[in-house]
Amino acid sequence: MTTLENQSFSEERALYALSDAFIKNCRFEGKEDGESALKEARNIKVEGCFMDLRYPLWHVTNANISGTKFSENCRAPLWYDKNISISGCSIKGIKALRECDGVVIKDTIASSEEFLWKCRNLTIENLEIENSEYPFFEIEGAKISRLKLKGKYSFQYDSNIEIENSQLDTKDAFWHSKNITVKNSIIKGEYLGWYSENLTLINCHISGTQPFCYCKNLVLKNCTMEGCDLAFEKSTIRAEITGSIDSIKNPLGGKIQADSIGKIIMEEGIVDRAKTEIILST
Question: Max CA-CA distance within the chain?
Answer without folding.
Answer: 73
